[in-house]
User: Fold these one by one.
Assistant:
Number 1:
Amino acid sequence: MAKSVFIDGAAGTTGLEIAERLAGRSEFELIVLDEARRKDDGARAEALNAADFVILCLPDDAAKAAVGMIRNDTTRVIDASSAHRVSPEWTYGFPEVVGRETVAAARFVSNPGCYPTGFIALVAPLVRAGLLPADWSYVCHAVSGYSGGGKALIAHFEDDRDIAFRAYGLALGHKHVPEMTAHVGLAHAPIFAPAVVPAHRGMLVEVPLHLSMMAKAGSPAELRAALAAFYAGSEIVTVVDDQPGELLLRASMAPVDTLTLRVLGSQDGSQARMVAMLDNLGKGASGAAVQNLNLMAGLPETAGLRLQAA
Ligand SMILES: NC(=O)C1=CN([C@@H]2O[C@H](COP(=O)(O)OP(=O)(O)OC[C@H]3O[C@@H](n4cnc5c(N)ncnc54)[C@H](OP(=O)(O)O)[C@@H]3O)[C@@H](O)[C@H]2O)C=CC1
Ligand SMILES: CC(=O)N[C@@H](CCC(=O)OP(=O)(O)O)C(=O)O
C-alpha cells in the first residue's frame, strides 16, 4: 500500500521540488492542502497526524511548531530546516556519513544544510580516517545560486538584475556553522564565507588546506583516494580525479541530485583546495529529502532522483 506523505510548506522552493521528485511514484501518496488551507493550523495539524511521513519545508520557527503539532508516535518526520540539525533527538540525514541504516531506522531526520553538505562530505571522512586533523582552524568559502535563500532571495535577485556577486554572513556565526562543526567533530568552528551569484541554482563549496603546516595530514592524492574509497558504490556522490583549469557554475544549470568532490593539490603537495559541487535544491535540499524518505520507507535510495542533469 502506498505510504502517505505530507509536505508542510509545499508551496515553497524546496517543497515544490520535492513534489516534483515524488510525482508519478506509486509508493507514495501526497496529502495536499489547497492554497486557502496550506497555512491553516487546523488543516495542517490534521495532515501532520494523518501522514506516514511528513517533510517540513518551512522556516525554522514554523518547523519547530509543526513538530509540536504531531500528537501520535507513528508519523515520521524529515525536517529540511536548520531547526534540529544538532539536536541529539534527531538523526542527521546524511546517509553516506551517518550510515544508511541509521537514517532508515530513524523517526526524526534532520536534512543537512546545503553548504554543510559540501563541507561535511569533504572533511568528515578525512578527519575520521586521521588524514586531516580535527583541531585545525578550517575555512570554507562557498557560492550558491539564489534559490538557496528561498522565495525571499529569489525575489531579491529577480528584482535587482544588477547584482553580480553577493557576499554575506559577514558578521560570521552563520546558522550552518554549528552543524559543520558538530558533524565533522571539529575542535574549532570553521570560518564560513558564503556568497550568492546571479544563477538560480547550483553551488560550489571550497575548503582550502595548508597541508604542510598540519602536524599530520595526507597528501592530496591520499586525501582524494580516501574520499573515493569512502564514497565507493554511491550513485549520488562521485570523487573526480582531474586537474581542471576552471570549475564553472552555469546559470542554466538543470536540477540534479548528485554531489561531485575534488581534491586539487599544488605540485609540491603542500597545499590543496577541496571542492564540492552540487545543486542546492538537489543533494542540498529536495534531493536529499527524497533520498532520506526512500531509505526510511525501505526503498532504493536513488528512486525518483535525478542522477544526471535533465
Ligand atoms: N532553498 C534551498 O536551497 C534550501 C532550503 N532549505 C531549508 O528549507 C526550508 C524551506 O526553504 P525554502 O523552500 O527555500 O523557503 P521558501 O521561502 O521558498 O518556502 C517556505 C514556504 O513555507 C511557507 N510557510 C511559512 N510559514 C508557514 C507556516 N506557518 N505554515 C505553513 N507554511 C508556511 C511559506 O509560505 P509563503 O509561500 O506564503 O511564503 C513558503 O511557501 C527552510 O528552512 C530552508 O532553510 C534547506 C536547504 C536548502
Ligand atoms: C543562499 C542562501 O541564502 N542560503 C541560505 C541557506 C540555505 C540552506 O541551506 O538552508 P538551511 O539554512 O535550512 O540549511 C543561507 O545562507 O541562509
Number 2:
Amino acid sequence: MTTKELVSQIQKKKSFLCIGLDVDIHKIPQHLLKEEDPIFAFNKAIIDATHHLCVAYKPNTAFYEAYGLKGWKSLEKTINYINENHPEIFTIADAKRGDIGNTSTMYAKAFLEDLNFDSVTVAPYMGKDSVEPFLAFNNKHTILLALTSNTGAFDFQTKQVDGKELYKQVLETSKTWENSENLMYVVGATKAEYFTEIRKIVPDSFLLVPGVGAQGGNLQDVCKYGMNEQVGLLINSSRGIIYASSQEDFAQAAAEKAKELQEQMAVALG
Ligand SMILES: O=C(O)c1cc(=O)[nH]c(=O)n1[C@@H]1O[C@H](COP(=O)(O)O)[C@@H](O)[C@H]1O
C-alpha cells in the first residue's frame, strides 16, 4: 500500500487507529480453546468486529513464534484473512528485525514478500546495510525504532552521541539511506514531550505510536505534538482493545474500545 492510499483511508474512516493483534492464548476467552486454531478464531472475530474502525492491524510476531509451527500458521492465516477481505487495511509485521545485509534480505522476503505484509518493524542498531534490504521493496514500508515506549529507551536512545541524542542520530542518518521514502518511525506514546523535536527532523514521515492504553500514553498529547499535514500518525493499542472482555462478548467489547479511540481521533482530525 502506498502512503497516499493510507492517508486516504485515514480521511475516509476518520481514524488512524492500529489494532495490535498480540494474542496470548492464556488471555483469550475459554470457549475459543475448542476451535481448531484458537488464535486465528480470536483474530478473525476481532477483525470482523473492528475493521471499519481502524486503518491498520499489527500482529506482534512474538505472540505467534511462541507457539512454533502452529503459531506461524495462525499468523499466516491472519494476514491472508486481512489481505483477502480487507485489502484497504495497512498491515504491520511487528518483528523488530535487522541483521547483516544478506540476512536482512531474507527477513524482508519473509515478511514483505512471502507473508505479504505492507510493512515490518526494524531495529536500527546494525546500521545502513542492515536496513536497506527492507527499504528495497517497492510500496512497502520499513518502520524503524526511533524512540521506544519502554523505560529502557533511556538506556541508549536518549544518550548523547557526537553531541546529539542517539534517537536523533537514527532519524537524521536514516534519511540519507537509499529508498528512505519507504521509512516510517516508531515513537512511543509515553514520550509525548519528544514529539516536537522529532517532527523538526522528520516533518513528513509517518510515525507508528504504540503505548496508549495499557502503557499509559496520552492520545491527545500525541495528536497535539505529533500530527502533521498528512496526519502522519498510526496510533496502536493492543491489550487495551483485544482483551476488553474475556467472555463471549469479547469481539463486541473490543469494538467498543476501538470506537472510543476512533471517536477521539475523529475529533483530532477536525
Ligand atoms: O514496535 C512496536 O510496535 C513497539 C515499540 C515500542 O516502543 N513499544 C511497544 O509497545 N511496541 C509494541 O506495541 C505493542 C503495545 O501493546 P499494548 O501495550 O498492549 O498496547 C506491543 O506489540 C509492543 O511490542
